[in-house]
Each structure stands twice: as C-alpha cells, then as structure tokens.
Amino acid sequence: MKKLLTTFIILLFATSIFAQKLNQRKIKQKHYFQEIPYQKIETWIMVPVTINGKVYKFLLDTGAPLAISDKLYKELNLQTIRRINANDAAGENKKMRYVVLPEIDLQGITFLNTSGIVLHENSKWAECFEIDGIIGSNMLRNSIVQLDEQKNHIIITNDIKRVSLQNSECQKMKLSFGSNPYFKITLQKGEQKTVQNVLFDSGDAGNFFALSMHRLRDYVVDIIAESEGFEWGAHEVFTKQKHLLLNIPEFVVNRLSFNDVIVTTTQSDHSRIGVKFLQYGKTTLDYKKKRFYFEPFENTNTDKLYELPWGIGFTMQNDKKVVGIVWDKTLESQLNVGDEVLSMNGMDLQFMNYCELFQFKTPSTGDELIVELKDKETGEIKKVEIKRMQLNK
Q1: For residue 266, is it within any domain?
Q2: Rounded Cα–Cα distance for residues 348 and 324 (Å)
Q3: Where residue 26 sits, what CATH number does that domain have?
Q4: Range of 244's domain?
Q5: Are 323 and 301 contained in the same domain?
Q6: Structure confidence by residue, pLDDT tens digits, 176-207
Q7: Is the pTM of this model over 0.85?
C-alpha cells in the first residue's frame, strides 16, 4: 500500500548565503570511480561511511544537504558554527546547527571540510533505523551519480565516460539551492498537458511522486478525494493541512510514460519524485554538466502506481499511531483525525513502542481493513470497517 503520510527528509535553507556555504566542498582524490553496494531499509538507500576510522550508516538523500545525528555530533565533538533556518517537507521551519566535518570517507572517496547540519535531538525516526547521518547533494555536486536498483549499487565518479549511458534518454537538470537536482516531467490528460520542474528526492521513502499544491493544475488530473490531515516532516511537527488524492492520467519522464498514477499532494513549495521511482529504471545525475539520464528497465510493470489507498491514512503523534487523514467522507461520522489506533485486523498495537509503531506496516492486501480506535474526544473504543477508495472514471 502506498504510504499516504510517510517519512522523508528534505531540508531547504532560508538564504542563498547559507546555501552557498553548505555547498562548499572538496574531494581529496583528483580522479575517482567507486561502485558502492547499498542496503535498503524500508525503501531508503543506506551506505556505509567512515569517519575517524569508524564505520557509520548514512542515508543517501538527494533532497538534503549533509546531515549528522545529534549522537554523532556529540561523539565527534564538533563545533557549532551557527544556527540556520531550515524548512522540512511539511513546510515547518526550525533552527538547526550548522557544522563542518573535516573528513568523511565514502568507500574510497574522501570529502574534506564538508558543511552540513545536525538533526534534532528528538529525531526519533533516525534512532529507530539507527541512522547516523545523511549523504546530501552538497557532497555530490561535482560528481556523476548513477543509481541502479536492479544491481543495488551506486556509482560515483568524476568521469562521465566511465558510466554506461548508451540506452539512456537525457535532459537538462537544474540545481536549486546550489545542489538539489531538478528535472522536467510532463503531466497529461487527453490533449491537455503541463510541464513541471520536480525535485529528485531519494530521501522521500514513501512516494513515487508527490504533487505540490502550489503546482497543481486541475485540468491534467482527476481529483478522487480531498481532506484535511497531518503531514509528517523531518522536524516531526504535525500541522493539519489540506490534501488531495489524485489520479494523473499520464505521467511522462523523458520518454517513459506511466498511466493512471495515484498520488497525494504536499504543502511543500515544489513537487518531488521519490525513491520508488528508481524501481523503473537506471537513473543518472550528472551534477557537473547538469544533465539527467534515465534508462527504463525491461518489462517494467507500472500497475502498482494505480493502487488505490484505504479510506483513511495513518501517522505518528505523541508516540502513538493515529488517524492522519480521512479520504472517505462516509467515515467522518465514525472517526476523527487524531483518533488513536489500537489494532488493525486483530493486530494489537497498544503495547508497541515508538519504533515498533513507526515501522508497523498497514496491511496492503485485501479490500477490507478492520481498525479498532480510541476516540480522541470521548475515549470511546470503537471498531470501524475501512474499504479502499474507488476511482470513478
């Protein structure tokens, strides 16, 4: 099942001056080529890095700068240069510590004096997955990065000739905030279409595509439902916002076309393609020449992009699993956004800790979901039958 209110990291900075500082970087090797195997946690891409001779687990996130956990910050005894404003994917703004790491080794590629930020002390999502930090786009902007989901590896090099691109389609890539990669996609419905710049955000673990409400063009999408619900971001602040559940009749990247793509909207200023996009082709980001390459895998099955969600979605709040959004209007008299989830299809959630709840997957099969809830207002315990949304064409 597609996660409606999912976990992702994307940090955009308030001023171009700080963006420039975060993009200050140097690689020790003049010539480098590394083929790096990666581990998947959920759908996140995790790579090992070495700092001061010790191996740590970092998330590869093209929508963020270098970041380290508060625990690693203290372990390395780093100095806070200053505090800077950062917005997360839900649009929440907080101050974060700005630091410089003297040396980071990514499987033989050595980054020197790299600027980054420190995640908040209460970043529980990072603790749950034992994430020590984030490899961000500010580290990669002088390199060519190729991600191959079929081989589960990343190639990082400064020589485009060493990367296989013979069957790839190419387009220009824009770097925003100094290093975040954007490329063009086309949304189409019949004869009407719109072209948009979208962020490629490999830190968005739950989405194939999320459409910004600020970039919404009604004439190329079908609105299935609308509701107010919580959007979860890196700052773990929960703001109730308007969301839409949409069907995009045709979604085109380079020359690969996807039909009937079910997506949700975000209040972020920009639309973004998430890590699930990598399931459909070999993706190459040439940060040096600002080019985006995509080679579809053979026999690609896009049917999963048509999967309709349950009538409600879930999120975390106050260390509990709660109703995050209600798409099905017929359920509004039976439950509320914020009701605590006690069980799903007989699976008891009441004694799970935060990490167990955070990682708990909503059942993805079948057409019926029985959810036991505790009413946030009255404390009443109730069982509600949830069905999948339907697309009326």
Answers
A1: yes
A2: 19
A3: 2.40.70.10
A4: 162-306
A5: no
A6: 876 899 999 999 999 999 999 999 999 888 88
A7: yes
